Amino acid sequence: MYLYFSKAAFQAAFCFVHLFYLLSDMIKVGIVGGTGYTGVELLRILAQHPNVSLKVITSRQEAGLAVDELFPSLRKYVSLKFVDPEKAKLDKCDIVFFATPNGIAMRQARELLDAGVRVIDLSADFRIKDISEWERWYGMTHACPELVSEAIYGLPEINRKQIKKARIIANPGCYPTAVQLGFLPLIEAKVVDTNSLIADTKSGVSGAGRKAEVHTLFSEAADNFKSYGVPGHRHLPEICQGLSNVAGKPIELTFVPHLTPMIRGIHATLYARLTSNKTKIDLQMLFEERYKNEQFVDVLPAGSHPETRSVRGSNYCRIAVHRPQGGQTVVVLSVTDNLVKGAAGQAVQNMNLMFGFPETLGIEHVPILP
Amino acid sequence: MYLYFSKAAFQAAFCFVHLFYLLSDMIKVGIVGGTGYTGVELLRILAQHPNVSLKVITSRQEAGLAVDELFPSLRKYVSLKFVDPEKAKLDKCDIVFFATPNGIAMRQARELLDAGVRVIDLSADFRIKDISEWERWYGMTHACPELVSEAIYGLPEINRKQIKKARIIANPGCYPTAVQLGFLPLIEAKVVDTNSLIADTKSGVSGAGRKAEVHTLFSEAADNFKSYGVPGHRHLPEICQGLSNVAGKPIELTFVPHLTPMIRGIHATLYARLTSNKTKIDLQMLFEERYKNEQFVDVLPAGSHPETRSVRGSNYCRIAVHRPQGGQTVVVLSVTDNLVKGAAGQAVQNMNLMFGFPETLGIEHVPILP
Amino acid sequence: MYLYFSKAAFQAAFCFVHLFYLLSDMIKVGIVGGTGYTGVELLRILAQHPNVSLKVITSRQEAGLAVDELFPSLRKYVSLKFVDPEKAKLDKCDIVFFATPNGIAMRQARELLDAGVRVIDLSADFRIKDISEWERWYGMTHACPELVSEAIYGLPEINRKQIKKARIIANPGCYPTAVQLGFLPLIEAKVVDTNSLIADTKSGVSGAGRKAEVHTLFSEAADNFKSYGVPGHRHLPEICQGLSNVAGKPIELTFVPHLTPMIRGIHATLYARLTSNKTKIDLQMLFEERYKNEQFVDVLPAGSHPETRSVRGSNYCRIAVHRPQGGQTVVVLSVTDNLVKGAAGQAVQNMNLMFGFPETLGIEHVPILP
Amino acid sequence: MYLYFSKAAFQAAFCFVHLFYLLSDMIKVGIVGGTGYTGVELLRILAQHPNVSLKVITSRQEAGLAVDELFPSLRKYVSLKFVDPEKAKLDKCDIVFFATPNGIAMRQARELLDAGVRVIDLSADFRIKDISEWERWYGMTHACPELVSEAIYGLPEINRKQIKKARIIANPGCYPTAVQLGFLPLIEAKVVDTNSLIADTKSGVSGAGRKAEVHTLFSEAADNFKSYGVPGHRHLPEICQGLSNVAGKPIELTFVPHLTPMIRGIHATLYARLTSNKTKIDLQMLFEERYKNEQFVDVLPAGSHPETRSVRGSNYCRIAVHRPQGGQTVVVLSVTDNLVKGAAGQAVQNMNLMFGFPETLGIEHVPILP
C-alpha cells in the first residue's frame, strides 16, 4: 500500500516538475562526432531526455546520412542527419558535446564558449592540468592551454559544485571514473599508503572505440584475454592527478589495463595497503558513509562481488570493499558501464548539473540483465 | 526548430495524459515466478512503468529473499521480497503475470479470474486451442481446458481488439512472435504457397531460461552453433495454429530452431514460394502497408538485413523482405529481442491494451547498441 | 587387449611408412599471403606435417617480420620471417599455397606452373569455370582464363581422382564445402527437386578474414546475429556450378548466409523437397553409404544435431539428415570448421592427394572441445 | 635448406625413438571420471599419445554410454564406453588419472598403488601437505593422510626429479600453475618482498567445470565480468604452500580470482615489490635464464603482453615481465590454457616424466589461433 501511493505521488510530482521544466528549460543540444560508441550512446540517452532537444549531430565522413541509417537501433527516436562540421550551426545550441577523437575539441571549444555555448568534452583534451604532461602522453601540442585551467573535471562525486557553474567540462575517462570512485573513500580518510596503490582494470572491447582495427576484431578479441599498455597508459596520469588532488600529495599507482571479451563494462580491482595505525577501520561503513548521498554510486553489502552486467546500460558505479583474511591489503571492486558512467551517462549527469536539472533526469535506465 | 517544439509539445501532452492516468489508472500488479529471465525482464520493465504498482512477486524457492539480492541490477528500483506462492495475496492485484514453467498457470488462473483479477500467462498453458494437441506436445494433462477457449492469443498485431476486452491472455512464444509477424503479410495477401513454408530460426541462449542445465553452460554454448528439436519443437503447433487461422486453412511449415551464442535475440529467416500468379507483387509495399500503423513492427527499407542487436532490450520487431535473384522464393528476415517482444515486453503491451493505456506506455526503451 | 596391440601395430606401421616418406617425399612448401586467417591456419597445420618443409612465406606488408612475432601461437614451431613477394624464391618450392585476397593468384600461377611448381589457390580465382560469370561476381577482369579450365575444383569427395593428377587446385570456399557435402547424396541419388533448394548458412566471424573492418569488430559482431548478402553472395555461383555438375542439369538454389558470434565454424541448414516418387527412401542409409569411405565426412546417427564445436580445429564435416514429421521436406545439417575443412585443412588434404601421401597425413587433429 | 634437412633428420630420429618405445613402452591407461572438462581434455590428448593405450574410462552416471556419444568431437578417436567404477579393472592399468571432483581420489588411490598402478590425481586431494589446512578449505575429513606426504606436487618446473620417481602425483590447480610459474624466478632469486604479493587472476568459464549451475550458464557468464572468492579461494593455500617452499619461509599473498567470458584460458597478473637493494636487477634476463631449459614455459621478449589465445589448446605457459615506469613494482603476466597446462596437459607431462618418455611426447599441439 505504502509503495503504491508513494509511487503515484512520485509520479505526480515528477510530472509537475517535468512540466515546469518543459516551459522553461528545454535546451538545444549538439553533438560533434556522432559516429563512435560514445556518440551513439549519447544519442540513445539524449533521445529520451525530457529536457533535451537534439538539434545537430556532426560527422565529416557520414555527412548527409540519416543517423538512423547508420544506427538502426535509433529508428523512430532520432530523425536527424549527420551534418558536415563546417556547416553545423553549433553556436545556436545551449550545449555541445564532443564525442570526438583527442585533439578536436581543443581546437573548437574556444569559439563555442565565446558564443555562449557550454561544452562537455568526452575526449581527453581538457583532463590533464599539466600541459606538458598532457602533450607527452597524447603526443601533440595543446591548441588551447588557457581553457585547460578553466575546464572542470566532470566527476560529480568530487566536483559537483564547480560543475554546476562550469562553462566547460572535461568528462572523465572510463577507467579513471571506476578507479577514482573506488579509491576515493580510502584516500579521503587517509587510511591507506598512497605510495603503493594498484589498479588492475578490465574493460569491455567497446572501450577501444568503433574504429576499424585488427586487434579489436571479433576473431582477435573473442575467447581471449590480455593486458595492454603495461609500460604506460594515458589514463594513468589522469587517475594520478585526481587522486593526488584528493590526497593532497602525489600518489603512486601501478595501473594495468586488460581487454576482456565483452562489449560493455569495466571492472576495476583495486589494491591498497592499510597504514599500520588504521587497521581497525570499518571499511564497509567508510564506503557507505562516503556515498550515502550519491545517486549513482551504490555500495554493495559486505562480502559482495559486483558484476559488470549489474550496471549494463545504466549510469551506476557499484562498489564492494574487502579485506581478505583480515590482512593489511584492502581490495576494492568497482564496476561501471564504460559507455554510460564511463562516458555518455556521466556527460549527461554533468549536463543536468550545469542546467539545474535533477541530477538523475534522463539517466534512470534500469540495467539490462541478462 | 520544428523538432524542438514538437518534442516539447509531445512532452507536455505526455505529462497531462500521464497525470490523468495517475489519478485514475494506477494498477496493482503481481508476478508469479519472478526468478527466471522473463520474470526479471518483467521487473525491469514494470519497475519504470508509470501506471504500475508492483505489489507482489512469488517464488517458492527464493521466498523471503529480497528481489534485488538475487538481481542486483534492480537495486534502487525494486524493494520487494519474493513471497511464497501460498502466502501471496494475488487476488488483491488488478493483474497477475505468470512467468512460470508450463503447467503452473493452468492450475491457478481460474481462481484469480473468479476474484476479478486479469491474467497474462507468459508460459504455454493457454496457447494451443486443441487440447489434445497441447497435451501431446507438452506431455501433461491440461488442468483447465475451459479457459483455453476463452484465452486470447496475445499477438496485438493480429488480435488487438479481442485483447482489449480479454480477461486472460496467452502470451505468444518467442519464436512464434518473430515467425508469425514475418509471414503474416504474405499469408493475409494470399501470395505464397502455404504448403511449403520454412522457418529457419536462431535464438540467443536466454531463450532456454535460467535453469541450471549442462547444454546451456557458457562452455557448452559459447563459440558454438547448433540446431535442436528438428524432429519437432513445441513452437511448431503454435505457429501453425496462428498462421492457419490467418490463411483460413491448414498451413504446412518446416520449423528448424538453432541456438546461437548470444544472450538475447531471435532471428527468423523465413522462406516461402510465391504462387505463380503473384510474381508481380510489390513485396516491400505489401509489408509497409500491413504494418504502417503498428508501433512495434518496423519494416526496414528494401535491401536491408536486420540485426538482432538493433532491437536489443526493446519491444521492436524489425523486418526486411527479399526476393533473391528475382526468383520465386521470398525471404523474410525478422528479428526481435526474445525477452521483450518475445516475452515480457509483449506481455506489457497486452496489459496496456487491456487497461486502456497507450499501447507503448512503459515499453519505449531505445535498443542498446553496441 | 585388441585395442592395445592394434594401436601399437598401427604406430609401428605409421613409423615405417613415415620413414619411407622421409627418405623420398619431403616436400618444399611456400605460402603466398601468410598474414590472414587461412594463412596462419595453414602454418598451424603445415608446421607439424611430417612431410612438409616450410620454405617461404610472403607478405608485402609484413616483410622482414618474424612470423611468430605476428602470431605468438607459432613460437617454437615456425622460425621463418615474412618475405617480400618480389624476393621470394617460390619457384624453388614443390608446391605453393595462395592464401591471398581474390585477384592475386590468377596473376602469379602461370609462372609457377611453368617452373614446375604445383599450386593450390585458397582464394576464388580459379573456382568458377564460366569466366564472364566469375567477372560479374568478383568485379574484375580475369588475368588467366586459360588456367581456369585446367584447374581442378579441390573437393576430394567429388574430384579425388583428378586432384591426384592436378597441377593447380581451386580450393573450395567455406560455405560451398559445407553446402555441397550436405546436398551431394540427395542430388546424386536424384531424390529431390533441384529447383527449390535452400541453403540457410551460418558462419563464424573468422570467415570474414583478418582485415580491419567495422562490421567485424568485436563490439559489432558479438551478442548479435544477422544475415548478409541475401540479394546475392559470391558463393552462390560456386555452389550452383558444383551441384549442377552433379545433377547433370542446372539447379536452383536460394542461399542465405548469416554471421554468428563465434570465431570458427560453419553450420549449413539445407532444405530440399523429396520428389513425389521417392518418399520411401531411407535417407540415413543413403548418406551413410555415400560417405562410408570418406575419412573426413562423418554421418551422425539418425536424430542427431551436429554442433560446430564438434569439428573445431579439425578437418571433419559432420552431417545429419532429418525428415521432420515424415513430410516431404528433407533437412540436412552440415557443420565444418571454416578455416580447416573450409580452407586450410582441405588445401592440405588436396596436397596430400597430389603428392601421393596418405590423405589424412598431418590433418588428424582431434577437435577442441570445449 | 638447413631447415629442410634438420626437420627431416628430426623426423627420422623421432621415428626411431618412437619405434623403440613402441616395442617397450606402450602403457595401459585408465581415467576415473571422464565426463568433465578435464576428462574430455585428457581424452583428446591421450587418444593421440603415441605410447598410450586407453583401456578404461569410468563414469557412474554415464556407464554404458559410448564416450563419443557424449563427446562427438571424439568420434573416430575413442571407441570406448564409460564403465561403472565398480566394474572397471583399473588395477590392470599402468597408470590411472583421476579427473574427479575432490574427495574421490583419496578413497581409491591406496588400492591402486598397492596393485602397482601409478596415480595422477587432477583433483585437489593430495595437493596440500597440511591435512588440517586441507580439511578446513575443502570441508571434509581426509580419507588418506598418509599418502599426502608421499604424493609429489606435479609442477615439473619445480619437482621434475621427484616426479620421475613418484608413484602418486598431485597435479596442480589451474591458477596455482600460472601463478607459481610467474612468481618463481622472483622468489628463487630473492629479489621481491614476499609479504605483499598480489595475484589478480582471470579464468575462462571452463575452469568452473561441466556441472550444471546457474552462475556458469551462458546467459549469466557471457558479456559479464566479475570477481569471486575474494574472502578466500581454495587455490590460495596451494599457491602459498608452493611459494613458501621456494622462499624457504612463509609468504603472504592476496589472491583475487575473476571469471571472464571465454571458454579456456587463465591470465595471471602478478604484482610484487622489489626489495630496496635489488632495484638494479635485469628482470628479463632473470626470467629467461630460469626457464631456458623448460620446454613449456616461454618467456616473451621484453615489453610483451601475452594473450590467452596464444596458448589455446596447448601446454604452454607464456610469461612477460614488466616494471612500469621503472618503479619498485614488478608486474608479471602469465597465461596458460587452464585445461592443458592447468590440468590435463600437465598431467600428461607428468606421466611422460614418470615413464621415462620424452617430456613433450603427445603434448606438442600448436595453439589454435584464431
Keywords:
homotetramer; 370 residues; alpha/beta; Rossmann fold; Dihydrodipicolinate Reductase, domain 2; 2 domains; seven-stranded mixed sheet
What can you tell me about this protein's structure?
Four copies of one chain form a homotetramer. Chain A folds into two domains: 2-150, NAD(P)-binding Rossmann-like Domain (Rossmann fold); 175-338, Dihydrodipicolinate Reductase, domain 2. The two termini of chain A are 30 Å apart. Helix content of chain A is 34%, strand content 19%. Chain A is α/β, with parallel strands linked by helices and 370 residues long. Chain A has twelve helices and 14 strands. Chains in contact: A-B, A-C, A-D, B-C, B-D, C-D. Chains C and D meet through helix 1, helix 2 and strand 2 of C and helix 1, helix 2 and strand 2 of D.
Short description:
Chain A has 370 residues and is an alpha/beta fold.
Q: Based on helices, strands and strand pairing, what is the structural class of chain A?
A: alpha/beta
Rg of chain A (CA only): 21 Å
The major sheet of chain A is characterized as:
7 strands, parallel
Number of strands of chain A: 14
H/E series of chain A: HEHEHEEHEHHEHEHEHEHEEHEEEH
Query: Treating each run of at least 4 consecutive H or I residues as one helix, how many helices of chain A?
Result: 12
Oligomeric state of shown chains? homotetramer
CATH H level, superfamily name of the largest domain in chain A: Dihydrodipicolinate Reductase, domain 2
Ranges of chain A where pLDDT stays below 50 over 5 or more residues in a row are 1-6
The greatest interface here is: A-B, 56 and 56 residues
Order of strands, widest sheet of chain A: 3-2-1-4-5-7-6
CATH architecture of the largest domain in chain A: 2-Layer Sandwich
- What global shape of chain A is seen? globular
CATH class of the largest domain in chain A: Alpha Beta
Query: What is the terminal separation of chain A in angstroms?
Result: 30 Å
Q: Average pLDDT of chain A, to the nearest integer? A: 94
Counting structural domains of chain A, the number is 2
Q: How helix-rich are the residues of chain A, as a percent range?
A: 25-40%
* CATH topology heading of the largest domain in chain A: Dihydrodipicolinate Reductase, domain 2
